Amino acid sequence: MNELLSLFKTLCELDGPSGNEDKVRDFILNEISPYCDAKIDPMGNIIAFKKGKKNTPKYKVMLDAHMDEVGIIITEITSSGMLRFETIGGIETEALMCKRVRFGNVVGVIGAKPIHQSSADERKKLPSKDSLYIDIGAMDNEDAESYVSIGDIGTFATEWADLPDGNFKAKAVDDRVGCAVLINLLKQDAEFDFYATFTVGEEIGCRGAKTATYSVDPDFAIALECTTAADIHKNTENKVTIVGEGVAVSFMDRATLYDRALYNFTLETAKKNGIPAQIKTAVSGGNNSGAIHLTRGGVRTVTLSLPGRYIHSSATVGCVSDLKSQNDLAAALLNELAKGSLN
Known about the structure:
2 domains, Aminopeptidase, alpha+beta, Elongation Factor Tu (Ef-tu), domain 3, 17 strands, about 350 residues, 8-stranded mixed β-sheet
């Protein structure tokens, strides 16, 4: 568990927004190369094959985690040296304002019109996203252009922190948690052959998953993800998942209506192995399963997610025990599906 947690911390600290996953990909390749056969496809996905100890599995199983995180891209440098930008992936305005961001070694702050210069009506509502700007401290556009360029991609500038009761906060938990679990599984002895895909571009439309799944052509797929926890008030009827109560299993989201038999089998596998698991109770969001399950003739797919508060923001809060549950259920389910326990 210590090695898994260390992997997770390191991955969260790396910067890798959609379209700029190079550092994450290089780190993963360095970690997994001694334990499996791995290649990079034309899209930039890593497709890895792990040889198992037993005979060829009855079913081909693929586990997937996406390498990219949400980010920002510079679209304009103003005469005063401020940076206009677009978001890469879904980031709400509330999650952007006054946050630190970085472009390589250059750090800035996302700003808005000062409150004392705002009208009474403006103070009652959020500013529009396109009115925000990034201040890197430049004197003018010429000064700013000596540090950054239009088209540069950045991320939130957030450091990992250990929190009380086994919790943590970090950026890019979506989906470096899935990458950490997948690396850990590849490093362990496997009972059966399986495939692992570390994919690009999930935050901008699951682009890598489409091509990686087509190449692997699996019978079953397990997507490893992070999902929303709306559990600040635990008695709320609108909670999605609860941090600390185990890995979350989805029955439906905005991109996938999950195979009912596989969904039930996943929960049964968790129960049989004493692995804490919970049901994601909201039909919301989407992930690589949306692309995976529609590939070729169709792939039976399940998503296992770590519950996280404040995802797609500068800092997500989660629990280490849920990381262990996600890892353990992914390992158990992989073996059951590969040997044909579910037909």
